[in-house]
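Re: the pair you flagged

First of the two:
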Amino acid sequence: MDVILDAAFPFIQTKIRIHKIIKVQALKGWDIGSPMFGNYNIPLNIEQGDISLSVEKEGEGFLYKRECLGKKTKKALLTSNGEILLNPVEPLNVPKALTAYLLIAFEKALLIEPKATKKIFITFPVEIGVYINSAADSQLIDVFALTKQKFTLYGDPRNGIICRYWKSEVNTTPPSTNHLQEGIIELILSNTTSEWVEVSKAMFNGYGMKIWYNDNLVAMRAAMKLKAGGIAETDFEETPPENGMSNALEIYTTKKLSIASTKCVMEYGL
């Protein structure tokens, strides 16, 4: 059973406004890299569409300020120097970390022939992580997103799994996306059974996500193995979809947690 819940939980819903004009301002010392993502020297100031982000000198430290879709945050950074890293992170942290699972519902169901392996492309929501880098390590200071958050329950109401919910078209070639809002998953579907299998969704474990990015694309590679009895298993690949892409610093990686498995088993319907 899938019950869709707006992230109003009681969080306030927001409307997304897409601006055609992109404005980026840089202060002295800001190393301009890829659009939005990359490493930047501080102080810095960015204004890009619905995002306003700055790190300004304040006393013996710095003041971090960010506004996105009307939501504001402000933090004091007690450091004498360093740099800021902006990169995509697991889409499981806004408005808060409620679950480690992402469920992507397909706009149309797929029928896969017996013993076949097929490649499709689906989208996923992008969340942007902000890190302060020092000589010792990297510390997450903020996460924000330009997409609306929804959640769903996968499975039985008493024993089901709460998942971040996203709906995607299914494509046989990579779709065009706004890389600050949507990423692309290259998904390999393998039907290991001797029967046709219908698939209408895919669920993923956030602890296994390997996110890659460049100037125009945020992407992951994953596999979904379809087994007998209506069960499927998903996991992520560690290689980039394209050469030259940068590996994002994922939030779950920085937590240095001991993870038993990065796979996700779907046993309550496909």
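Second of the two:
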Amino acid sequence: MSLQARGRRIVRRRNPGRTRLAAGSPARFVPPAPRSAPNSGSRTALQKHIDFFDTDHDGRITLSETYCGLRRLGLGAARSAAFAGVINAALGSSTSGSASLSVDAERIHAGKHGSDTGVYDASGRFSQTRFRRLFASYDADGDGALDTVELNRMYAGSRTDLMGHLGSRAEFGLLLDLAGEERNGKRVLTRERLLRFYNGSLFYQLAEEVAARRASRPVTLRGAVESGIREIY
């Protein structure tokens, strides 16, 4: 974070994901385009992935920002609170270098755990080779998507430790819930959705889809009850 004086005005620069509109004007955050290359721009693919939760773009993701981000993705209040607590407890200290419940977006690579896919490298950059290898190894039917059985094989093949293994299962289980598609009676993660996950654009897309669904729900007593249950859980 740096301060730059321009005449008598001081402009605060925060997250490098922001784009300056004009000299002296406020900075504007621009989400990644859906088909952008994961490693394009000044931020790593992993940083762009979590920037969705950094709503004030100050480089720190608080517990409340994680909770609100999960709510925007369609999770109910109870699960959002539980996942936010786990996520920030796990990543806060490892990225901040001291006990903290706030995640340091600039050092998010320090929060990588064992038993992951390796698609993000040690610096948080996207590896196209490892992404291709993931589908070559675990997309058994070659349909360009991973179902529950194929994901289970991926967890087993990537396992190097217990805690990391459990973390991977939780992360991909949540992603399958949020971004999965129905195919032939099975819920799957498609190659396209996973690529958008890695380039940082998926969460913005999902939030728009959730907002549209919420706005289009019919106003009936039954609909209100069902919606209320979903919002709680």
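The two ends are 38 Å apart (CA to CA).

-B.
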